[in-house]
Amino acid sequence: MRSRGGVGTVATVDLDVPVVPLPLTQRLSRWQWTTVDVVVAALLALASIGAVVADTRLNHGVPLNALRIGLIVVTCVALPYRRIHPTPVMAVITAASTAVILVGARGPMMLAVVMAVYTVASQSPPRVSLRAAVIVITAVTVASLVASGWAAIATPLPILVGWLAGENSRTRRAYIAGVTAWASERDREREERSRRAVADERLRIARELHDVVAHTMSVVAVRSGVARVVVDTQPEEARRALEIIETTSRRALQEMRLLVGVLRDDDAGREYTPAPGLADLPRLVEEIGAAGVAVDVHEEGEPRPLPAGVDVSVFRILQEALTNVVRHAGGAPARLVVRYQANQVELEVSDSGTVVAVPTESQGHGLVGMRERVALFGGTLAAGATATGFTVAAVIPTDERMGQP
Question: Which tens digits make up the pLDDT trace of 372-385?
Fold first, then answer.
């Protein structure tokens, strides 16, 4: 967004970034989750071993029970490592749990398989996790059918639920990462826009400095030339010329201190002198007249307050145009017209004397600055030699559409 406020004002854009709460899996650290897994594995082992010991129907001898208990221990010992090595742990737990099912043991061992599949699904690409889930579901289903027949056909359903939960967790993490990256990118873009706005504002201040210096030096040059010529014959006229030089120089130095101070100081709360506008036109005409150029001012239409940015640009355009008359028209009188229209203001500065030198963009930045000021608001500028001198005509929109293409 372009800033049209006072000196040093930078417009910023507030971005609405969706706040996504982190899931529990990201709010706890790895060692905390490892502790949880160890506790779950211990409880699972106790429950499974207790189920084996309590089931007298499966008590076919110490060796068989020892095998079942050994497979349970292997499954529970592997479980806490599922976040570090998800795929190998899933393979070990699936193999051990399948063997437990085949030897006829029952208990909560399926929970370990579900947790292992969930971990692989939440940390692996969809194709990998789907392949792993199919393998595990197939192995557990076959083992259950062999051990218990069709009565165990629903055994793989918890594994499918675990895989879906893992996929959901992975998708959510990807979404949070995407939103975070998007917000970071928007922050970088906002900072870049702020830097560009500051650079544009300082470039505008530099142009203001050019306008101030160019106008002041033109007046000083003309009046010092007058003082040099009449210093011996008309000392009062020479004294008046020096007074004009002093007044003009002091005013220019004050404005230059203001602008340079803005370039050096980023304190936004500091108060500054208001920027010039059409209200300062009489003073400008007086200074130009003191430089030896009579200015005939005409206002057409109903005068009205202009937007702040337009007001400053109008004043600077008139200042530059009149300064060009002082430089290049050989002291010929100038005619200044400010014409107020419904949605725009029209400016015209012309001289009727002999053209000493026609200003061109290669001789300075005056016409370039005027053209850019007019283009800022979507207006037009025409500048060129006429049969009797030089004319600058500008049209600047003043309604809400200004600045739009």
Answer: 778 877 889 998 88
The reported pLDDT for the residue numbered 164 is: 92
> What letter does residue 383 receive in the DSSP assignment?
E
pTM for this model (two decimals):
0.44
Q: Is the pLDDT of residue 357 over 70?
A: no
- Nearest CA-CA partner of 208 in 9, 383, 369: 369
Query: What pLDDT score does 254 carry?
Result: 64
DSSP 304-357: -PPPHHHHHHHHHHHHHHHHHHHHHSTT--EEEEEEE-SSEEEEEEEE-S--S-
Length of the chain: 405
- Round to whole Å and give the CA distance between 111 and 97: 10
| pLDDT tens for each residue of 47-77 | 877 777 666 554 555 566 777 788 888 888 8
SS3 category, 81: helix
Element of type H or E holding 392:
strand 390-397
Q: With 70 as the cut, is the pLDDT of residue 201 above it?
A: no
Looking at residue 359, its amino acid is P
Residue type, 10: V
Quickly list DSSP for 149-212.
GGGGTTTTHHHHHHHHHHHHHHHHHHHHHHHHHHHHHHHHHHHHHHHHHHHHHHHHHHHHHHHH
Do residues 309 and 9 lie in contact, with contact meaning Cβ atoms separated by under 8 Å? no
Please provide the DSSP assignment of 232-301 as one string: TT-HHHHHHHHHHHHHHHHHHHHHHHHHHHHHH---TT---PPPP-GGGHHHHHHHHHHTT--EEEEEES
First to last CA, the chain: 15
* Torsion angle in degrees (nearest 10) through CA of 240, 243, 248, 250: 180
Q: What is the pLDDT of residue 8?
A: 35
Cα–Cα distance list, 233 to 3, 224, 290, 386 (Å) = 54, 15, 19, 37
